[in-house]
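Reopening this one. Same input as before:
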Amino acid sequence: MVAFLTRRFFASLVVLAVASYIVYVLTCFSGNPLQDLLQSHAKNKELLIEQRVELLHLDVSPFLRYFIWLGGILQGFVGHFTLGYAINGQPVTDELGSAMWATLQLVTTAAVIAIIFGVLIGITTALRQYTAYDYGATFLSFLFFSLPIFWLAVMLKQYVAIGFNNFLANPVIGPVVIVVLSLVSGIVWLGIIGGNAKQRLIVFGIATVATGAVLAFISATRWFDDPGLGIVVVTLLSVGFAFLVTAVSTGLENRKSLYSSLTVVAIGAALYYPLQYLFPYMSLWLFILLGIVAVGVGILVGWLYGGHDRWASARTAAITAFLMAAVTALDRYMQAWNVYANSSSANGRPIATIGSVTPGLSGDFWITGIDQFTHLLLPTLALMLASLAAYSRYARASMLDVMNQDYIRTARSKGLTERTVVVRHAFRNALIPIVTIITLDFGALIGGAVVTETVFNWQGMGALFQGAINITDVNVVMGVFLVVGIATIVFNALADVVYSSLDPRIRVSA
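Same output, byte for byte:
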């Protein structure tokens, strides 16, 4: 494996070098980086032109100028790495650094959410083929996949941002809206759960009544004015996660795993109030440390419970602990929502429509976290809905193909439970073709989402690349190209490693 990856790495470097040379030369001939100065009426026009020519080596032929740029990269081996200067005189590395961080925030969040929900929807629709749930998910997938991203972004601005901000001025849900949303919820859950006519009717009734009760409570208490979950809701949600994770991971018949998960929930509930005294002093590193501690406690509890498979119990308890930690953090963010929404920066309209931060905002870890969330919400939704549609279709097709294989029928004929057949045999093999799509898409997304970043005025890699193309800023264009090329190489190598881990039959030899 190491020899194979090494070979692939050096072959990819050769391809990247040839491609970068072609892109550099073509970009140089695509425009004139002195165009703005040539049209200028400044008195020191000639001096400015001379300075830019010297800064960007414009007096050298593009065919040879490439090697000056490449030399700056190779100097990195002796500690003087550089990608040259942009037209504005700033180092390209500085501009790439800020743009890359903005893009990573955006595309990582959107990609992770799209992958999780896309694969989940695709797998479940394959298992419920030709049901109302399958047809509904297919319709919505093709709908979002066909919508132009710029139109979807504008609709999100209008109805998710502006509409929700208007609703927050008087957060009361009308009776008609409650009835309609309750019926829609009942229909959705009826399609997902399925069963015979009696079971479907029971699911519809429970989902409808439960949704109506929750919406009525939210409206009557004006919950959106000062949202929060509290220890009761956090604990109930965590208990639900414990049963769900155990059912998928090991099956509810594995009592050791279930007891491990429930014990983790009990520990989390006992620590709920003590943690409230720690939260005002929260920082990013402390936040990460607490998450690691939560997972570590889950692993320890699962291991101590033992059973015939200690690691299964440890894995299940660790996932449950992580989910409970996430819900607890969400509850704390909600407690800070009222302060943020009514601050002078948000001015009662917290959902942002442009930019990545609120100018002039000051606050603690939780306030700045909410601010990042409100700015990420719309562009993340736009990217997620488009990507989710594609992932769900790929996952459905892959799962259907795997479920018709001979080894699946053999596993069922041996008496294995449906959970074991689906999770341990079908799911792992269905992920293999999906991994290819995910890794290639993620590598490409590092280059930025040009349309989405433009609509939401998000200063990421896409906006930087578009601006550089418009003014023929060759060094910036090549900087973006280099980042995307390296990301593609890395994620292709990662795909090879994941293939081998998903299917032990796949072995990459030297």
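So the earlier flakiness isn't reproducible anymore. For the record, The chain has a mean pLDDT of 85.
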